[in-house]
């Protein structure tokens, strides 16, 4: 009897996921039938004329989350190394708590801070650094910067995924057996050489898994990005241009969508987002599992 | 697995010609970099907390907690409806999410050591990674369209969908920490399995489970994206759970992107209140586990 009830609730998880997939499929079938694959690669987004192309959003999501990953990975791995190999225990606890706090701050608060604090800093100080050097040769880094844009979104996302990547990398580093370290030190390696040869080499795939879980979070992150990316449905020429992501176009336009086909295209974008994060998460879990069976939870 | 020696050879670490002093300096340099990366990561945290506390406190007053939002551009007003709304939504989400998550967790730990259980466990992990905006769309299609409008119910259900996998996962992990001999002792006394679970195993793991539930509530209380087109928002009091309902995160979002200075100031006050809720839940959850 009780066993039966428990099984029903276990089954409810499967049912819930099934319902999600079914509802997304049903909601987007209208758009899928009407536009087919062209929808993904057309850059023309004009709801009034019923022209729907999702490429600007897909592009924005890819660029902003890859940018976030490029910024966040070295910092996160640095933190993990510092916490596992260098810091004394009492300090480790404090920093660990602060990093967890960083993960607990609601996305909307990141967005608020992004609009009023980060965007002006990027416009005044950080963007000119790139625009006046790299921007002179590579159009991708050309100006001007309005503060809001794809670069600002990438920075906010990086801050938000650092706790994820850092805490998983930390657990991955902690399962490296101590004999590895001792062997390297006994062979005359300096502390850094020991970390690089014995610890990082050993935990490569786990760190890669952590990066991909972080990437999954960055792809799905909505509110903070919506508030700082500038919301312009065109493929940006420069990294400082305003752009749009898949998640933020849904957040902004879903309530205003007036026609059935408009809503259906937005649901299709959501379906795509769902599919991509699904694949990314499955891949990442596989990688993390393969190094340390203990790390299951992606915070 | 390559041996350490092979790795070192490959990376030319043990080259005898390598200058020890230079290697030590490089080592120190890289270790300094790890310290710098930690500082880089913590700077935004302190900046966010600093701004939210300073700007939030200056906009915080009694009216903020007792009054309805003022019309755009007018001074005064508060987020009383948003505060009550957030607590209403959290209660609805907890009423659905906690029992379902608990039972699913019990299933995974106590009955799920088979193929079916492994599948459910895997899908729970997958659900944890679904973007919350996607859950908003699903609940819109499932509840809002079916009920004919935005409602507190829809918002609560959306938040519950986020809570369920989180509660399931922590419940499972906490129950699995209970040593097997406790289960066996109960069963040996002739107690039926379901009573062993409810009366012996669950209470043993209760502290950890409550911690997990509190963290799940903390996570959900700041969620904005899934509420945008389920609970929607409301500038007034909601008369019933069938109506759109205001919530703190949605109000903060609308105020933050508005052009009015008064509203922007209140957005900071809202952010401060949200952070306080989240931090209090997080810290007390930590204290509960530490006492063990």
Automatic annotation (TrEMBL), chain A:
| Annotated transmembrane regions | 7-25, 57-83, 95-122, 142-166, 199-219, 261-284
Q: What are the subcellular locations of this protein?
A: Cell membrane
Against CDD domains, the record matches this protein to:
TM_PBP2
Q: Pfam families, per this entry? A: BPD_transp_1
Q: Name one GO biological process term.
A: phosphate ion transport
Q: Which SUPFAM superfamilies match?
A: MetI-like (SSF161098)
State any GO CC term: plasma membrane
Location of the ABC transmembrane type-1 domain? 58-284
For membrane topology, the record states: Multi-pass membrane protein
UniProt GO molecular function: phosphate transmembrane transporter activity
Note whether Transmembrane occurs among the keywords: yes
Main location as per UniProt = membrane
Going by the UniProt record, its keywords in alphabetical order are: Cell membrane, Membrane, Phosphate transport, Transmembrane, Transmembrane helix, Transport
Q: What does this protein do?
A: Part of the binding-protein-dependent transport system for phosphate; probably responsible for the translocation of the substrate across the membrane.
The family note in this entry says: Belongs to the binding-protein-dependent transport system permease family. CysTW subfamily.
Q: What is this protein called?
A: Phosphate transport system permease protein
Q: Which organism is it from?
A: Aneurinibacillus thermoaerophilus
- Record lineage: Bacteria, Bacillati, Bacillota, Bacilli, Bacillales
From TrEMBL, chain B:
Location in the cell reads: Cell membrane
Which keywords accompany this UniProt record?
Cell membrane, Membrane, Phosphate transport, Transmembrane, Transmembrane helix, Transport
Identify its protein family. Belongs to the binding-protein-dependent transport system permease family. CysTW subfamily.
TM ranges are 29-54, 83-108, 120-144, 150-167, 196-218, 267-288
Annotated CDD domains: TM_PBP2 (cd06261)
Descriptive protein name: Phosphate transport system permease protein PstA
Pfam families, alphabetized:
BPD_transp_1 (PF00528)
Taxonomy, superkingdom: Bacteria
Q: Which PROSITE patterns match?
A: ABC_TM1 (PS50928)
Q: Name one GO cellular component term.
A: plasma membrane
> Which residues are in the ABC transmembrane type-1 domain?
83-285
Membrane topology is:
Multi-pass membrane protein
One GO biological process term is: phosphate ion transmembrane transport
**UniProt GO molecular function:** phosphate transmembrane transporter activity
